[in-house]
Amino acid sequence: MQGSLGRAPMPSPRLLVLFGSQTGTAQDVSERLGREARRRRLGCRVQALDSYPVVNLINEPLVIFVCATTGQGDPPDNMKNFWRFIFRRSLPAASLCHMDFAVLGLGDSSYARFNFVAKKLYRRLLQLGGSALLPVCLGDDQHELGPDATIDPWLHNLWEKVLGPYPVPLDPPGVPWPSKFTLQFLQEAPRTCSEELRVARTDPQGPPSELQPFLAPMVANQRVTGPSHFQDVRLIEFDIAGSGLSFAAGDVVLIQPENAASHIRQFCQVLGLEPDQHFTLQPREPDVPCPKWLPQPCSVQCLVSRYLDITSVPRRSFFELLACLSPHEREREKLLEFSSAQGHEELHSYCTRPRRNILEVLCDFPHTAGAIPPDYLLDLIPPIRPRAFSVASSQLAHPSRLQILVAVVQYQTRLKEPRRGLCSSWLASLDPGQGPVRVPLWVQPGGLTFPQTPDIPVIMVGPGTGVAPFRAAIQERVARGQTGNILFFGCRRRDQDFYWEAEWKELEKQGCLTLVTAFSREQEQKVYVQHRLRELGPLVWELLDRQGAHFYLAGNAKYMPADVSDALMSIIQEEGGLSGPDTAAYLARLQRTLRFQMETAPTHGPTDLSSGLTGPPSASLGPEHLDSLCQVLADDGSDSRAPANLHGARILDSEPLLGAAVIDCPWAPTEDGDEDKEEQAGEQGEEEECPVCTEPYRSGEHQLALLNCGHNLCAGCLHRLLGAAPSADLGRVRCPLCRQKTPMLEWEICRLQEELLQADGPQRPAPAAPLGPLLQGPGPWACLEHRYQLRFLTRPLGGRGCLPFLPCPPCLGAWLWALRERGPCARRMALLGLLALELLGLLLIFTPLMLLGLLFVLLDGSGR
């Protein structure tokens, strides 16, 4: 086995692929890994991280981890238990010394903490003694070719490492692999269908969950936008009496949607399926469990309507399997082209860009669709995933009701049929006035937590449907007698999309709420919530600094979060009289103490843009030139932020290894109390780390407030950031985390870049006198000094001894630059001298040109 020095190669590697997936992309890549392993005659298991008994990890010789990053650098839901376990500080340093591993990350470089989970897991596995076969792979959705642009070459190198000098012949690409399950159709329909039994359970045992949701009766489905408004927004209310649901402000409700009846009929017609036919599902391999969410026996109608996501945009693996199953030569050739790395751009134009869904693709390839064996349905089509919505009501105000605010997603591409969100469109189609309607749902903790102390005020900024979680918070705080509620709400027009106007007005009359509105389309110049924030800057600063207020932000993630953050930083800087670095440190302190919280939803793709999705899928951040990871083994540290929302969740129980007592095994799960104590100890002793490369800061680095936007980088990432920008474009440098332009003052960028060049390049001769400190601020003298500073830096950034257009020997310019070190007056005289010399040079250059032009004008006039 390559990658493990001094170890004998394994004759037949046992490959384990573990994935953490939020939206299904990581699971799809894991399934692809499993297929390619089987093509290479390798035994392979593919499992979700939380479904794998983690105590057995020390016995695994070869493991591939496929991890997505969600929210603000959080792990996916199906790997949070594993994440909490693997960062226990009590795990021995050599626990995984017998394991070879590789980590494949999936993220989006337009979001914060790009591939943070994969980077941090890679470093943690190295700390525990694992041997890395390859550097971590960082797939990026923002790449012009998608994540496959990084994954394809990485997988090629992976198989070379795994197989070593003994490669095996591959199956031809057109040969289909065996399906994971077989569908055994029943001759007669069962008397009592399991799906009917499940629908009948309106009082599940224990709290509702994904495997056992509560079928909540819908009691209201009301459109709350005007008839002429461009978007259909619904206020939907459910009756949760007797459900066992318990939620607080900031929590989210997850809803399992269904496909439209017209799509179900079309799908069954294209594939030649009988909707009323029943079947049982059997796995082909003994270690592959049947999906827990699928009832047994099940009808084709139930399978297609509730479990197969036939309106999702297919991934490349869909076309790869479809090509293997196609009996039609021309269709197979086109499908093979789509599934190849060379055809990625054409696949993007055909499928990804216009958001063409699986059903439409099957209709475009009718001969192939009609020949698909039913056994391959679960391999070919991903399952429908639940959608998350912010709870818009308080259980204290309405004990037996749960409300959500849903924006119905509909947008147009170049395709004739408009694109529609699956869950929002399904919910909008339900009418409780026509008969009983039940919706499967359950509740999970959200990303916003509100203070329980009565005298702490809260400032909430929620434009559009982002106001939904704040309505729940206001209802909850008013029910508890808390009156310090300030809401900034923005929409287009007062008479079209002013949600809960009457409720807000009544609370204002009672003195329980201060409402600030921004209607962007009611005047010639658009006004947004960030403008209202700036207008009330003194009040915001008074609440934040003197009364300890908490600041919350929710809404879409396109431009609004950055604009509101800029407005808040301006308020802190202007009203508080703080400098740029001090403002950044102040804002960072608010974030660390959870006094500044944000919950945003993406505005692109097929995701339902409804009442506050819990966060952008596969969210992460950093530009591509900061993706490289420092391969340095750092001190053991526990990430206390990742498991913050677990609320004491335990690791899955597993049998002790080789009959040993559980207490003697360092990898055995601990009791809840011990685990909580250990996590608290980890939080107290955790080192601060760079948010880009996840490496701990070296001594003194974390004390530098490097970026005005509030983000700090280690010296290595800062050096790569500044080194990637030409000297003329330093003012356009963007923060790799929030992409704000000019994160530092230009003169400070020059100073830092000069220090880094001096540290890494050849040392310059020491000056006769120490250089005086730069002016701390963007004043006129500092700006003038910045103008000339780059001219006198050492190579490769500067290297010029004098300025352009300087009508003097080079030594004169260098003498004037050195003269500024002799004091404030000499500094100003030197800068003015350099400016005068440059103006004189420009005058000497352009005066002859102007005279020559005048001469041509005179000659032309005399010729006439």
From TrEMBL:
One of its GO terms (cellular component) is cytosol. Residues 15-159 form the Flavodoxin-like domain. The chain crosses the membrane at residues 797-819, 831-859. One of its GO terms (biological process) is iron-sulfur cluster assembly. NADP(+) binds at residues 465, 520-521, 526-530, 563. Residues 690-739 form the RING-type domain. Its EC number is 1.18.1.-. FAD binds at residues 355, 387-390, 421-424. NADPH-dependent reductase which is a central component of the cytosolic iron-sulfur (Fe-S) protein assembly (CIA) machinery. Transfers electrons from NADPH via its FAD and FMN prosthetic groups to the [2Fe-2S] cluster of CIAPIN1, another key component of the CIA machinery. In turn, this reduced cluster provides electrons for assembly of cytosolic iron-sulfur cluster proteins. It can also reduce the [2Fe-2S] cluster of CISD1 and activate this protein implicated in Fe/S cluster repair. In vitro can fully activate methionine synthase/MTR in the presence of soluble cytochrome b5/CYB5A. This is NADPH-dependent diflavin oxidoreductase 1. It comes from Camelus dromedarius (Dromedary). The gene is NDOR1.
